[in-house]
Amino acid sequence: MDGGKCTVTVISHERGENLICSKGSTLMDVFHKGNIYIDAPCGGKGICGKCKVIILRGQVSEISQDESRYLSDKERAEGYRLACMTKVIGDVEVAVKSYVEGAQIMSTGIEYSVDISPRINKRFVQLDLPTVEDQRDDLNRLTAAVGMEEAPDITIELMRELPGLIRDSNYKLTLVYDGNGVLNVEKGDTTGHLYGVAIDIGTTTVVCYLMDLKTGHQVDTISGLNAQRPYGGDVISRIQYAMENEDGLAGLRRGIVDQISGLIKELAHRNNISLDYIYNVVIAGNTIMGHLFMGVTPQHIASTPFTPVLTQGVVYPAHELGLKLGKATRIFMLPHISGYVGADVVAGILAAGLDRGDDLSLIIDIGTNGEIVLGNRDRMVCCSTAAGPAFEGANIRHGMGGIRGAINTIRLENGELKYTTIGDEAPIGICGSGIVDALASLLDVGLVDETGRLLEEDEIESDLGRGLSHRLVELDGQGAFVLVDAKSSSTGDSILITQKDIREIQLAKAAIAAGIKVLIQRMGKKVEDVAMLYLAGGFGSYIDKRNAARIGLIPQELQDRIIPIGNGAGTGAMLSLLSAEEFVRAGYISDMAEYVELSSALEFQDEYVNAMYFSP
Predict the structure, then answer these.
(1) Triad 185, 210, 352: Cα angle to 5°
(2) Would you give the DSSP letter of residue 204?
(3) CATH code assigned to 121-187
């Protein structure tokens, strides 16, 4: 095009979309502005190699040496490029493979029971008709019919609508209210329609639960990958994006707000429920996700002393946060504990009942960050470790999230390596649970020593190890082990675990293991004193317990005390939605929990170094 403008035609799922950009824009920038999803865990910094696209035709910048390091000879020959490093210099047609529809998202959680007492009420009333003798104003007439001693708080918008509502409904109305005032007045008897939505905003995924607030029944669930993922796979990348770009914070907020509005609308549509009947929305998420959702800067969480803008639970009308929902819909944000232990952890504590038990228990949520809580009704200590991205595949050569075609289990059977994939499809990469299995298997057969070094063929001592030594190769100057050969993979390339991948897992597992040790020491206890280990999140639900202990991710002593609680954040959000008491209880948990900053804990470094080693 003229004037320094170019047309980028994006092909995804056999559909095309034309986007206009300035000459010299990176494809990543084009995708961001056009709301085209592409996996980019590093946030477009050129260090993960995940944002691969295929240039079908057109003019783009030459491939650089840095970019070529992430592409095989076969990929380069087929036109693969990295979106973050490829600049548009003319009209171009590019193919994007989206894995959004194939994502395996954890939405189920631990069973719970709760007394249904939401912070919303509805009451049908029939008003007395006004007469010459009875000239009471509309608001007093409404107040008397409900049995209130004085007029409730009511917004000016609703006050303006009240005369028409009363007369159009022939003086038969349903009052929607809570302890703070009237939220809405509806024509006729609508008391049978009372709904809410509980939401877990994860760094990687978003899960929404539509709940009947009269019965406590879970009506429906919907989920998707977090719309902010193209701006970085971890919270630090998103903070940096918010700080470094003029529209960064606003763009991140718009992405998640529009996504949640869309998900709730889809829930309402497919269940034939009016958006006006969805009154309460409870949100659990980590502290950074909470700040980004509200459009509050999280930049001071990223540097010492890691200070958030707010941690307490807050309530806002949905429209004030930009959500396109019912006019009476309110958003309840669950409280956080610190900058790096958020409302998702508070919700998980609610779900597990950690604050109500006498026994000492652990909760570990190995997501994009690793949060750990240890305690009981008397005391709780918690911490956060930078461990999650490796277990979600962000820093692993062929790593990926839990999507169709990802290797999710690996086992040794009669000396042979066996694997399964999500959806039983041809493998395209390996997700967190498969990574743990792979490393545990390599340790078992003696191909990896206690320092984490992948041995060379002449160093292998065990028969099982020698039987698999033909899978050892060299890749980019480092050792690697072939999990799936090129003929068996969906991509046409071998799927490997490299020496660098093993180091990444070592760093991640050592951070989790050391964090556990520090918390146990702070409580003056021993590992044997821990009665239960609750594993939260999708990764915690899918990993093999024995293999997690084998690589040292969790203490060996606790592998038989593990209880997976699935999406604990979602379960805690549902509890807080169904019961006003549970929402208040979340505040008590936030106040009670003691946060331990590991970067300033002297004992952490020693424990971290020790945890780097594997058991022989």
Answers:
(1) 120
(2) S
(3) 3.10.20.880
Residues of the chain with CATH 3.10.20.880: 121-187
- Identify whether the C-beta of residue 395 lies closer than 8 Å to the C-beta of residue 47: no
Q: Which pair of structure tokens corresponds to residue 409?
A: 């289990």
Residue type for 554, please? I
Q: How many CB atoms lie within 10 A of CB 455?
A: 17
List strands edge to edge, sheet with 15-22. Answer: 15-22, 5-12, 88-95, 52-60, 80-82
Torsion of CA 238, 244, 245, 247, to 10 degrees: 70
Q: Strands of 171-217 (E only): list them.
A: 172-178, 181-187, 195-201, 205-212
Q: How much is the pLDDT for 555? A: 93
pLDDT at site 368: 67
CB of 345 within 8 A of CB of 381? no
Q: What is the pLDDT of residues 234-244, one digit of tens each?
A: 888 889 889 98
Structure tokens at 443: 């340790």
Burial of 306 per CB tally in 10 Å (0-12, 13-18, 19+): middle
Specify the CATH number of the domain 5-98: 3.10.20.30
Which residue, chain included where needed, has tokens 């979600």?
392
Rounded CA separation 531/236 (Å): 34
Rounded CA gap, 502 and 277, in Å?
Answer: 51
CA distance 469 to 482: 10
Q: 33 with 19: CB under 8 angstroms?
A: yes
User: Is residue 571 a contact partner of residue 602, using CB atoms and an 8 Å limit?
Assistant: no
Indicate whether this model's pTM tops 0.85.
no
Residues forming CATH 3.10.20.30 domain(s) in the chain: 5-98
> Residue 104 — φ and ψ, nearest 5°?
-95, 105
DSSP 117: B
5-31: pLDDT as tens digits: 888 988 876 567 888 888 889 998 888
Largest CA distance in the chain: 105
Residue segments in the chain with a per-residue pLDDT below the cut of 70? 1-3, 13-15, 98-112, 149, 151, 180, 368, 388-389, 394
- Residue 191: predicted pLDDT: 92
Could you tell me the strand order of the sheet in which 181-187 lies?
Answer: 121-126, 172-178, 181-187
H/E element, 365 = strand 361-366
CA–CA separation, 498 vs 205, rounded Å?
27
In the prediction, which pLDDT does 98 show?
57
Q: To 10 degrees, what angle do helices 235-244 and 287-294 make?
A: 30
What span, in angstroms and rounded, lies between the C-alpha atoms of 280 and 582? 14
